[in-house]
Write a structure and sequence with these properties.
Number of domains: 2
CATH topology of the largest domain: Rossmann fold
Shape: globular
Low-confidence stretches: none
Strand content: 15-25%
Mean pLDDT: 95
CATH superfamily of the largest domain: HAD superfamily/HAD-like
Distance between the termini: 24 Å
Order of helices and strands: EEHEHEHEEEHEEEHEHEHEHE
CATH class of the largest domain: Alpha Beta
Structural class: alpha/beta
Number of strands: 14
Radius of gyration: 19 Å
Largest sheet: 7 strands, parallel
Strand order of the largest sheet: 1-14-13-12-2-3-4
CATH architecture of the largest domain: 3-Layer(aba) Sandwich
Length: 283
C-alpha cells in the first residue's frame, strides 16, 4: 500500500496525540522551521497534545532550554523525552564505575549527578558515546583503534543517540548510532534505548500521562524523518507514522516533486513503510 500524501490539519480528527521528532522535522539543524512549529501549535489549539520525542543525547530538561533559546514557544509542546532520558537508567546501572567517553563537551550534562570516572580505554568498564568528538566532521572510523581495544577487552558501548546521521543545515553529520553500528559490525555489543527502541516510547506515553492526558495508541501519530529510527520506531510502538521526506533523505528525494510511489520505494530500501508522507511538516 502506498503512503498518503498528507498535511497535519486534515489528520487531526484521526489523531489526538503526536510523537514528533525534532531534528529534520521542526528544525533543520541550524534553525527552527516556522511552518512545522506552527503546525504543532495549531494541533494543540485544536485540542490535541504533542510530545517531542528526540534521539538527542541531552536530557529533556537540557533540550527544552536549548529549543527555548532557539525560539520554540511553549505553545508548541506539552512534553518532551529524549534518548538521553531513555539511556540514563543504563548509565545508573553502571555506577559507580569508569567509562571511556566519546562525545563533545556540550553533551556532558548527560552525566550530571552520576558517579562515573572517565578514564582511558584500558581502565574503562564500558564506553559511553553521545556522538563524535568533532560534531561536524567526525567519522565512525576515527575510533577504530579505541573500538578494537574495547573489543579485545569485551566492553559494551552505551549509545546515547541511536541516530546514524542527522540533518545539520544543508548537510548530514554522523551521530553516536553510526559509531555504535560500526562497533557492532566489528563484533562488539552496543546498548541503546532511544528510537526505534521501545523504552523511549514508554517514556513519551508516561510523560503525557503525568500531565493528565490519556494516550490511546490507535490515536497516536508519530512524525519523523528517519527511516531506521522514526518509521521503524513507530512500527515497533504500534502507532501510525507521517514520514517527512525532506529531512535526512532530502538529498535523495526531491521534496518539491514528492510522490507517494517514490517515498514508498525509498522507505522499502530500509525495510519499512509509513502510512503518510510529506515533504515537510505543515498544517
Amino acid at each position: 500500500m502506498l503512503p498518503e500524501l498528507a498535511t497535519l490539519g486534515p489528520l487531526r480528527d484521526r489523531y489526538d496525540t503526536l510523537y514528533c521528532d525534532v531534528w529534520g522535522v521542526i528544525r533543520d539543524g541550524s534553525d527552527l522551521l516556522p511552518d512545522a512549529v506552527d503546525a504543532l501549535i495549531r494541533f494543540r489549539e485544536s485540542g490535541g497534545r504533542v510530545c517531542l520525542v528526540s534521539n538527542s543525547p541531552r536530557r529533556s530538561s537540557s533540550l527544552a532550554h536549548f529549543l527555548a533559546d532557539m525560539g520554540l514557544p511553549d505553545a508548541a509542546t506539552d512534553a518532551m523525552v529524549t534518548s538521553g532520558d531513555a539511556i540514563h537508567a543504563q548509565l545508573v546501572k553502571r555506577t559507580p564505575g569508569r567509562a571511556f567517553n566519546i562525545g563533545p563537551e556540550r553533551d556532558s550534562s548527560l552525566y550530571a549527578g552520576l558517579d562515573l570516572e572517565f578514564t582511558d580505554i584500558d581502565q574503562a568498564d564500558f564506553i559511553s558515546c553521545t556522538g563524535p568528538d568533532d560534531y561536524f566532521n567526525g567519522q565512525p572510523e576515527d575510533y577504530d583503534g579505541v573500538l578494537r581495544r574495547a573489543l579485545e577487552r569485551g566492553l559494551e558501548l552505551v549509545c546515547a543517540n541511536p541516530d546514524i546521521v542527522v540533518q545539520s543545515g544543508n548537510r548530514l553529520v554522523f551521530c553516536a548510532g553510526a559509531i555504535a553500528r560500526h562497533y557492532r559490525e566489528m563484533g562488539g555489543t552496543s546498548i541503546v534505548a532511544g528510537k526505534p527502541h521501545r523504552p523511549i516510547y514508554r517514556l513519551a506515553k508516561r510523560a503525557l500521562e503525568d500531565n493528565g492526558f490519556e494516550v490511546e495508541l490507535s490515536r497516536v501519530l508519530a512524525i519523523g524523518d528517519g527511516p531506521e529510527t522514526d518509521v521503524e520506531g513507530a512500527i515497533r510502538a504500534g502507532v501510525d507514522c507521517l514520514f517527512i521526506a525532506d529531512g535526512i533523505l532530502g538529498g535523495t528525494l526531491d521534496g518539491g516533486r514528492l510522490d507517494a510511489e517514490t517515498a514508498a520505494v525509498a522507505l522499502k530500501d530500509y525495510g519499512v513503510a509509513a502510512r503518510y508522507v510529506a515533504a515537510q511538516l505543515t498544517w
